[in-house]
Amino acid sequence: MSPVSTVFxxxxxxxxxxxxxxxxxxxxxxxxxxEAALAIATAGADVIEIGLPYSDPLVDGPVIQEAVHRxxxxxxxxxxxxxxxxxxxxxxxxxxxxxYWNPVDQHGVARFAADLAAVGGAGLxxxxxxxxxxGPWLAAAAGxxxxxxxxxxxxxxxxxxxxxSSVCGGFVYxxxxxxxxxxxxxxxxxxxSLVRRVREHTKxxxxxxxxxxxxxxxxxxxxxxxGVIVGxxxxxxxxxxxxxxxxxxxxxxxxxxxxxxxxxxx
Length: 266
What we know:
By secondary structure, the chain is an alpha/beta fold. It has helices at residues 3-13, 30-42, 62-73, 78-89, 101-107, 109-118, 135-143, 158-167, 191-199, 215-222, 232-240, 244-264; strands at 18-24, 47-51, 95-98, 123-125, 147-149, 151-152, 172-175, 206-209, 227-230. Strands 5-4-3-2-1-9-8-7-6 form a nine-stranded parallel β-sheet. It is globular.
């Protein structure tokens, strides 16, 4: 079993959902992102996603767009992303990269897979890569024992869900709503039905992302999903912080609240 699969299996054995936290590499700095990711993990996140900063973030909302912009202005490169993954993975936390496809293609698909595996990365989440075009990545990921994670959406047909689920590893990423990322006041009413639909086609865990921002929402999603993915809410804490120390305290506090939520949702 992959590190990600092991975490989800352990969470299920504890009758809870897994908590997945996201931060972009390079924000507020390369070392700052590492510290933030480790703080989130220490406070209760089971899996960490490290975002690879990209100039055209199609599904990211204004919060993550701003953080990614600052990371790019600061000079963050693929090597920095890999260093970030390595530092978090070395702490014993399954760590995936969240990235649009173009940077992987430019880096070289086989090379990217090998470099990610070399630093202890667990897999790759690719929001804009379709299964029909994923052959080279699926082969490279299999060769390096990496989990390829793809997204399904409320608009996905049953046939599409079946196809996407069939090429996923680790878990299936269920985008809870149509639109861009961002913390929201309520959880999308489409999320639970999407999870049910995905489960008709796969035995993989189903993790819900887009919109969760507090412990109560995490508990709600944990009531019907195998994993709760939180990104914008963590990034917002870092953006709003008056100092790096305050940022770390903010994400640590939020992670603890969310961890409690996923443990009380069932």
